[in-house]
Design goal:
With 331 residues, the protein is α/β, with parallel strands linked by helices. Helices cover 32% and strands 21% of the residues. Helix 8 links the parallel strand 6 (178-183) and strand 7 (202-206). Helix 1 (2-13) packs antiparallel against helix 2.
Length: 331
């Protein structure tokens, strides 16, 4: 029975639209409330009867910190792999057990292509040194799939070979090939200082994270420095994390558009069980329908604003939260 329900939910997942998202989210909530022991216990402690929840505004969101010390799993299955957060020395990493890597792969591809078009049209160049230095990074897995799907022999990961990276960019520009340069913040800043070249026709996308390598900057400060060095007016951003299987992308000005399987809400800082109004600063809650096998309702430690059209911005972190590696701008 549970496998049948899951199969039906996954089928609907690939066809979700704005007008069907909330209904599907409620179905996923009922499924996870019934078959995720940890989430069910959390609901019980809050005295929430899942059968009485009739709106996504009534759904309790699981604090993201629970991924550090617990297995968050819906249904009984053996994990194909797991993703692990980076963190810094002394921090406990989050671990996200993954039932089916193909679901993550397909969702990443569909999400990116819904906003940027076919990956096969791009040369994908990645500057993710800190992520490559460890195992089980969800970001590295995603970008590696993009590299393979691009089918371009110039696509690839780059560590300290920044001059080779610039050469590849120049070759692609001569061939009029679209270029996606995706990198962690400190690595893009290193590139900007060493090779301040004209990248006006390149999608420069930062994933956040200084990893203790450089002084933390606001997103605006980071983008200003990169824009000046690379002579481009727009710096793109990716928003994702270990505990999620969906992403959001910004095509400038720090305003993110979530992928179809993702929806952002904000909660009040003083009352974490109450939602915040559109356009007002609150803590970020994420509905990630692709988290079908873990938990789709995550209360993060990020601060931001959500607008009426579903787009959002990240403006900082809760004061008591850890500094994380993926897409964090401390202000």
């Amino acid at each position: 029975m549970i496998s049948t329900v899951r199969h039906l939910l996954e089928r609907q997942l690939w066809h979700v639209k704005l007008d069907t998202f909330n209904d599907l989210a409620l179905k996923v909530f009922q499924y996870q409330a019934a078959h995720n022991p940890f989430y069910a216990k959390y609901l019980s402690l809050l005295s929430v009867d899942s059968t009485e929840v009739k709106s996504i505004n009534e759904v309790p969101f699981l604090p993201i910190q629970f991924f550090k010390d617990n297995v968050i799993q819906t249904g009984e299955w053996e994990a194909e792999t797991f993703f692990q957060s980076s963190g810094t020395t002394g921090q406990i990493p989050s671990i996200h057990h993954i039932r089916d890597l193909s679901l993550y792969r397909m969702n990443c591809i569909l999400g990116f292509e819904s906003q940027y078009g076919p990956i096969a049209d791009y040369c994908v160049l990645a500057l993710l040194p800190s992520y490559l230095e460890r195992d089980n990074s969800s970001l590295v897995y995603m970008v590696n799939e993009f590299i393979k799907l691009s089918g371009n022999d110039k696509s690839g990961f780059f560590l300290d070979n920044r001059s080779e990276l610039i050469q590849q960019i120049e070759k692609c520009k001569k061939e009029n090939r679209k270029v996606l340069l995706i990198g962690v913040s400190f690595a893009l800043l290193d590139l900007a200082e060493t090779f301040p070249v004209d990248l006006r026709n390149v999608i420069v996308m930062e994933t956040g994270g200084m990893k203790g390598r450089r002084k933390e900057l606001t997103r605006q400060e980071l983008h200003d420095q990169l824009s000046t060095a690379f002579k481009t007016s727009v710096i793109h951003s990716e928003y994702g994390m270990t505990e999620l299987l969906s992403q959001a992308y910004s095509k400038g000005n720090g305003i993110f558009k979530p992928n179809p399987t993702m929806k952002i809400l904000t909660r009040q800082i003083e009352d974490p069980l109450a939602l915040q109004a559109f356009g007002r600063t609150g803590a970020i809650n994420v509905i990630d329908l692709a988290n079908l096998d873990s938990c789709s309702f995550i209360a993060t430690d990020d601060l931001g604003k959500v607008y009426g059209d579903g787009r959002f911005e990240i403006i900082g972190r809760l004061d008591t939260s850890d500094i994380r590696g993926c897409n964090l701008m401390v202000i």
